[in-house]
Design goal:
13 strands, alpha+beta, six-stranded antiparallel β-sheet, 61% helix, five-stranded mixed β-sheet
Length: 657
């Protein structure tokens, strides 16, 4: 049987044997480098080896004329699936070997393997020949393109050589087509370039592994060098740390010596300062007291250990709640406490102490175990503070009396002029009436005399009315120091509307003057407060600005800006009232809110306008007010008012002398 095999068939079998060897080698090397597709390339070589080794029995029957009709369909199917499977496995393996992204090798294999037979069957039905050969040429050309693309990214591996031998296969087939070789021989000899492809592919894979191993060795060498450098650096760091540790130990020893010295100095300082030290065991209630503390409280020096309950008996009842609250707050972990309170000595005498303490030891659950602190006798300081407060109160009272004297002098001066004018006019009117009565009694009264008296009487009446009205208004301005209780009615109102209404009421008083008012208030800002005092505050601020700020300036611009602003956790509004007028000096700013202080004394000013503003803001509205000003740059009042006013309204005249 073997003697009947032709030379081309024997050549094909020899190539098949070599392909089988290549398939085995690639299969064994696939585990060395996963992801290169060596398993698929091994499958391609194995399938090609199967076709070439069985060429006399599998391929030859298909090369005779009219073989498709005469041959077995099973034989034709096996040859077709094996041949196309070899091509499909080669394409899938080359894509993986060239690290082509996209489809998985299994997807590429199935797509090519199933598409080629369908194309051949459809071409046979349409009587189109050469489809399989042209598909083979296209696939080998595609493989060559893959290798050329891979050669751009990875040089020195041998991808160009692999691309060249891939092109060699279709070139040899084309050359055989133009030669006089018969079709059977051409089919068999075409197995040679396919075998060369396998050899070159295996060579390229080995070369690629070698280059990767060399690069890995270079990287390993570099890592070893870096590791050695790191070891040297780490050794130096350890040596440096050892030196630092030795230095730290030396410093620690010095610190211990300094600590012992500091403790000794502390004892001396505590002795010199007169403070007593206590140490309280919270669990059993025992307390250690320093000799100074025992002496301070009137206990014998040998009684340094006693129960905490003893101090409860020495604490005045009115002080006990505050002391217990402070100590409880500290025991709960809110930090140290400090409290000034009174204590009773053992002999019944009272003294003021500065008491402070903190927890220094707790158990695993955070419960206090130990608390230490100190007590200082501050009785002399408290007595001095009380004496100082008494002196301050006397000084304030003297200042109020002085202010009252200034007020009385100012009031006398202000009232003297209108009342004197009225008195002079009334005296002249009285003399005129007496003369008129005498003339009427004597019968000498003339019509011209009566008309002259009537004219003089009308003029005198108007003069008296003007002066009396001026005096009444002056008295009314002083009466405004007391808050009108009818204006303290509390209600919910819109802040912006109250401001606009107040401006509208004040505008007639300065409509002939070059004064403009700009308002910037957010809509819908409501308050639960007293609109009456708020209106009076705005009125006084506007009048004060017009009277004192305009002066000789060509124009005056007022600006009222309001915004929501919380203060100490309480909701409220901030109102800024500013003008660009003449401004105030620093001395005037300091005294602006003082009662009876005015820069226009003797010109109709009472010195109570800003005092009334300050009193209303602080008491009725429950807010704060601050003033800033410099000469030539206007004034700026900043008011903060709570959205909900206080429930109780103190009297506005509590601070009056």
């Amino acid at each position: 049987m073997w003697s009947e095999i032709s030379s081309p068939e024997a050549f094909a079998q020899a190539c098949g044997l070599l392909q089988a060897v290549l398939a085995i080698l690639m299969w064994q090397h696939r585990a060395m480098r996963r992801g290169w597709g060596l398993g698929w390339l091994s499958l391609s070589m194995a399938t090609g080896a199967l076709l070439n080794l069985a060429a006399p029995w599998l391929i030859t029957p298909l090369l005779v004329p009219d073989a498709l009709r005469q041959s077995s369909r099973w034989l034709l199917a096996v040859a077709m699936l094996a041949g196309f499977g070899s091509l499909a496995a080669m394409v899938a393996g080359l894509r993986a070997f060239c690290e082509r992204p996209g489809w998985k090798p299994s997807t590429v294999f199935l797509l090519v393997w199933l598409t080629l037979p369908v194309m051949v069957i459809l071409a046979g039905m349409l009587r189109i020949s050469g489809v399989a050969d042209w598909a083979t040429l296209v696939l080998f050309a595609y493989g060559a393109l893959l290798c050329m693309d891979a050669a751009k990214d990875e040089r020195g591996v041998g991808h160009p050589l692999l691309a060249a031998v891939l092109v060699l296969h279709p070139v040899i087939l084309i050359a055989m087509g133009f030669a006089s070789m018969d079709v059977a021989s051409a089919r068999y000899f075409s197995s040679a370039p396919y075998t060369i492809i396998g050899v070159v592919l295996f060579s390229v894979a080995l070369n690629r592994m070698r280059l990767e191993r060399e690069r890995a060795q270079q990287e390993l060498h570099a890592l070893n060098g870096a590791l050695e450098q790191r070891v040297i650096q780490r050794t130096q760091e350890i040596a440096q740390r050892n030196e630092e540790l030795a230095f730290s130990l030396e410093q620690l020893e010095r610190a211990r010596e300094e600590l012992a010295s500091s403790e000794q100095r502390l004892q001396h300082v505590m002795t010199a300062s007169g403070e007593g030290i206590w140490d309280w065991n919270v669990r059993d209630g025992t307390m250690y007291n320093s000799p100074r503390l025992s002496e301070m409280m009137g206990f014998p020096l040998e009684e340094q250990h006693r129960n905490i309950s003893v101090f409860d008996t020495l604490t005045p009842p009115e002080e006990r709640a505050a002391i217990q609250a402070a100590i409880g707050h500290c025991l709960e972990g809110h930090g140290p406490y400090r409290l000034e309170h009174r204590m009773r000595r053992k002999d019944g005498g009272m003294l003021w102490v500065d008491d402070r303490g903190d927890v220094v030891e707790r158990d695993a659950n955070g419960a206090a175990l130990r608390m230490v602190g100190s007590v200082a006798d501050i009785t002399p300081r408290k007595e001095a503070e009380q004496a100082l407060r008494a002196a301050q109160e006397r000084l304030v009272h003297a200042e109020k009396l002085a202010a009252l004297g200034g007020l009385v002098a100012g009031v006398a001066h202000e009232l003297n002029t209108p009342l004197g004018n009225a008195l002079t006019t009334v005296s002249a009117l009285h003399d005129g009436l007496r003369n008129l009565s005498n003339a009427q009694t004597s019968g000498t009264l003339r019509r011209s005399q009566l008309e002259a008296f009537l004219d003089e009487g009308l003029a005198a009446g108007e003069l008296v009315m003007r002066n009396v009205d001026r005096a009444a208004r002056l008295v009314e301005s002083f009466k405004q120091v007391a808050v009108d209780q009818s204006n303290l009615r509390r209600r919910t109102f819109d802040f912006g509307l109250v401001v606009q209404d107040t401006i509208a009421m004040c505008r007639p008083s300065f409509k002939t003057k070059p004064v403009t008012i700009e308002v910037d208030i957010p809509a819908g800002m409501t308050m639960d407060s007293h609109p009456g005092p708020l209106e009076q505050v705005l009125t006084n601020l506007i009048q004060n600005a017009v009277v004192h700020g305009l002066g000789d300036l060509p124009a005056l611009h007022l600006r009222i800006t309001v915004q929501a602003l919380a203060h100490d956790g309480q909701q409220g509004v901030e109102m800024v009232f500013a003008d660009d007028g003449q401004g105030m000096t620093s001395e005037v700013v300091k005294q602006a809110f003082d009662p009876y202080f005015t820069t226009r004394f003797g010109q109709g000013g009472s010195g109570l306008g800003l005092y009334i503003v300050y009193n209303l803001v602080q008491s009725a509205l429950g807010g704060t007010i601050a003033l800033k000003s410099t000469p030539g740059h206007g004034v700026k009042f900043t008011l903060w008012l709570p959205t909900v006013a206080p429930q109780s309204v103190p009297s506005a005249i509590d601070d009056m002398p």
